[in-house]
Amino acid sequence: EAGVVQSPRYKIIEKKQPVAFWCNPISGHNTLYWYRQNLGQGPELLIRYENEEAVDDSQLPKDRFSAERLKGVDSTLKIQPAELGDSAVYLCASSSRYGENSYEQYFGPGTRLTVT
Amino acid sequence: AQKVTQAQTEISVVEKEDVTLDCVYETRDTTYYLFWYKQPPSGELVFLIRRNSFDEQNEISGRYSWNFQKSTSSFNFTITASQVVDSAVYFCALSPAGTASKLTFGTGTRLQVTL
Description:
The structure holds 2 protein chains of 2 kinds.
Chain A: E1 5-7, E2 10-13, E3 19-24, E4 31-37, E5 44-50, E6 53-56, E7 65-68, E8 75-79, E9 88-95, E10 106-107, E11 111-115
Parallel strand pairs in A: 2-11
Antiparallel strand pairs in A: 1-3, 3-8, 4-5, 4-9, 5-6, 7-8, 9-10, 9-11
Chain B: E1 3-5, E2 10-14, E3 19-21, E4 24-26, E5 32-39, E6 46-52, E7 59-61, E8 64-69, E9 74-79, E10 88-96, E11 104-105, E12 109-114
Parallel strand pairs in B: 2-12
Antiparallel strand pairs in B: 1-4, 3-9, 5-6, 5-10, 7-8, 8-9, 10-11, 10-12
């Protein structure tokens, strides 16, 4: 079974530029999460989707961050414009409500963003 | 509010030594889940264990064991006979029971195992 796929793995941009990250969750997983992990810290949830609906976006900085999961499968997280403080690893995870491993979150490898 | 504290920032051990990673948590929920994840240099978080708050039995899986003590709000992780491949950052996490969807992570403990 394929895991959570993220691209790109690395991205370097100048401040004020836009950037987008893509995530394809494990097939059949209805819940998708975006996390941000700053250096030396644990991941922090940005947004959670149940199918195509964003059910928890309380930690998403909505002035510059946006996300979508139009068909309830893959998802895109966008930053526009990027700031120096946005440099971090952006992790995508997915989980399913069903089965033996219900609600366990499976993480992708992340996208390491550097804003210069 | 939920909080997870991993006081050990970095631990170095020599291969074959036993090592314990500490985790202390705070929550007002009466039922909750506790987790441990491993993050190797590749960056991907790997699930190790989930423990429900009403199940205080300790668990052993190969060289890994977990000690859950509700009285002290701790969920410690021990690696027996450590190996170089155990080198990684280990995160403890907490979520409300029910959906396990709102994970609160600690700051992680970097474990370095050398020959």
